[in-house]
């Protein structure tokens, strides 16, 4: 069950909200709705996550701060969660690479197991780890109720693609969510804004990006390659930020305040700044639960750089079990080390526009690694951008609605430049016009969803 389908928008969501608002025992209604949402496609995985959550809940009681011998219980929880993630997401990758090594020595290869990937497993595991670590650090108390903890794990707005919610940020809200008309109103506006980003912008740009990246890279002319890259750069932003807007909006309607996940990332003035604006919940999770433990309290520059590099290699691997994702992580890790060592000081001497342009260029180059199926294809795509391949034209012609979506996307990305401090604080909308505009968006999205092919969210695969 996915957010941008008519079934979810016009049937599941209204029925669920009516039950949530008018039936007693809202916590149970929330859990039932979240379990139905998650188990709709593959119910077998539902019980795997419930069992894993039950283990977390029991372990949380064992690792309360001040209790003796609590570290082994924390380690047991981390091993159990990371073991689940590795088994589900990386077993096939490990077998394929091991077979490649065996074949190099003419040894018999192993049978590769067939393992289905549970929906949202990367996001769920990261959130479950925050619970155990927060309890260990004393940042949060263990959940008194298994029902409350299940609602943290299965809260359906953020379940499949984030934002990643840290337990200490939502623990109090789970026990006493706020229920106000203003939250419902603002949540509806935010949800429909995200739906519009996904259906009216990202889904219209997707076919152009797909066509460019699906063509043999050796047949790409520079114009098509650049058009495909621009469309994908806009698609992935509006697709993922659209999901985050919808999740934050639905959370607001339910009485929860989920953290922001994007803040004008394409206006960043460095790659360091980019990761403070893009998928903020992931970058802060990496900082709090991986980078700081690796660095220690007073790290040397060498240890700090090594920890930063390792974090982003793992960040790339988190995105997918493939070598091009590892290269994607290495790429960003190296640039972040450069920023910390030299780059940020050098950029202070350059105009802001130059820094923004250079950062956007570097990010777009990394998206080629992210989008291509292999490192070899990425290298060929870079060559096509530079026009170094002798090819016949493979022009992609834009339909009227696609051109409109492209222009609107570019305008929305760069519109915050009109503010004195873009990205620092969103403008507060006037509520009546915003509600009217949200209604228009709903009608436009309904029309689009009824006549077009469904495009899944890009980050569902992670």
> Strand count, sense and closure of the main sheet?
none
- List the quaternary state of the chains: single chain
Rounded radius of gyration (Å): 23 Å
How many helical stretches?
Answer: 17
By DSSP, the count of extended strands is 0
Helix content: 55-70%
Overall number of domains: 2
Order of helices and strands: HHHHHHHHHHHHHHHHH
> Mean of residue pLDDT?
87
Shape: globular
Beta fraction? under 5%
Distance between the termini: 16 Å
Unreliable runs: none
Structural class, please?
mainly alpha
Describe this structure as you would to a colleague.
The chain has 462 residues and is mostly helical. It has two domains: 6-176, no CATH class; 183-461, no CATH class. Helix content is 69%, strand content 0%. It is built from 17 helices and no strands. α8 packs across α16. The protein starts with 5 loop residues before the first helix and ends in an 11-residue tail after the last helix. The mean pLDDT is 87.
SSE map:
Blueprint: H1 6-22, H2 26-39, H3 43-62, H4 71-104, H5 121-137, H6 146-154, H7 167-175, H8 181-214, H9 222-254, H10 271-275, H11 280-295, H12 301-319, H13 323-347, H14 352-371, H15 375-386, H16 400-414, H17 431-451
Helix pairs in contact: 1-2, 2-6, 3-4, 3-5, 3-6, 4-5, 6-7, 8-9, 8-16, 8-17, 9-14, 9-15, 11-12, 12-13, 13-14, 14-15
């Amino acid at each position: 069950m996915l957010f941008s389908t008519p079934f979810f928008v016009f049937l599941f969501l209204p029925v669920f909200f009516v039950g949530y608002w008018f039936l007693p025992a809202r916590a149970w209604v929330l859990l039932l709705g979240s379990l139905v949402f998650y188990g709709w496609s593959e119910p077998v995985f539902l019980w795997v996550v419930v069992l894993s959550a039950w283990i977390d809940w029991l372990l949380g009681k064992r690792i309360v701060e001040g209790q003796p011998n609590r570290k082994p219980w924390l380690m047991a929880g981390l091993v159990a969660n990371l073991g689940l993630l590795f088994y589900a997401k990386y077993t096939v990758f490990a077998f394929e690479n091991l077979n490649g090594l065996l074949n190099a020595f003419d040894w018999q290869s192993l049978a590769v197991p067939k393992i289905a990937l549970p929906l949202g497993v990367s996001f769920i595991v990261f959130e479950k780890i925050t619970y155990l670590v927060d309890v260990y650090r004393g940042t949060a108390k263990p959940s008194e109720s298994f029902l409350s903890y299940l609602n943290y794990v299965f809260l359906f707005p953020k379940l499949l693609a984030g934002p990643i919610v840290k337990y200490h940020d939502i623990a109090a809200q789970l026990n006493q969510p706020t229920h106000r008309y203003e939250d419902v109103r603002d949540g509806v506006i935010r949800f429909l804004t995200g739906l519009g980003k996904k259906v009216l912008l990202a889904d219209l740009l997707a076919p152009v990006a797909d066509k460019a990246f699906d063509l043999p890279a050796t047949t790409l002319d520079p114009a098509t390659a650049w058009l495909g890259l621009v469309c994908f750069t806009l698609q992935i932003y509006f697709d993922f930020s659209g999901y985050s807007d919808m999740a934050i909006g639905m959370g607001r309607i339910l009485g929860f305040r989920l953290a922001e996940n994007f803040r004008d990332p394409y206006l960043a003035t460095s790659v360091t700044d980019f990761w403070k604006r893009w998928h903020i919940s992931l970058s802060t999770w990496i900082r709090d639960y991986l980078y700081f433990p690796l660095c220690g309290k007073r790290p040397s520059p060498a240890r700090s750089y090594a920890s930063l590099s390792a974090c982003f290699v793992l960040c790339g691997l988190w995105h997918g079990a493939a070598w091009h994702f590892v290269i994607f992580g290495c790429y960003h890790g190296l640039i972040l080390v450069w920023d910390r060592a030299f780059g940020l000081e050098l950029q202070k001497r350059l105009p802001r526009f130059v820094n923004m342009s250079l950062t956007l260029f570097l990010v777009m180059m990394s998206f080629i690694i992210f989008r291509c199926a292999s490192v070899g294809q990425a290298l060929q795509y870079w060559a096509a951008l530079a026009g170094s391949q002798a090819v016949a034209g493979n022009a992609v012609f834009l339909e009227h609605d696609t051109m409109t979506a492209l222009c609107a996307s570019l305008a929305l990305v760069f519109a915050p430049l009109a503010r004195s401090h873009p990205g620092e604080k969103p403008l507060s909308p006037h509520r009546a016009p915003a509600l009217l505009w949200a209604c228009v968006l709903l009608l436009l999205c309904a029309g689009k969803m009824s006549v077009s092919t469904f495009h899944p969210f890009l980050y569902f695969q992670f």
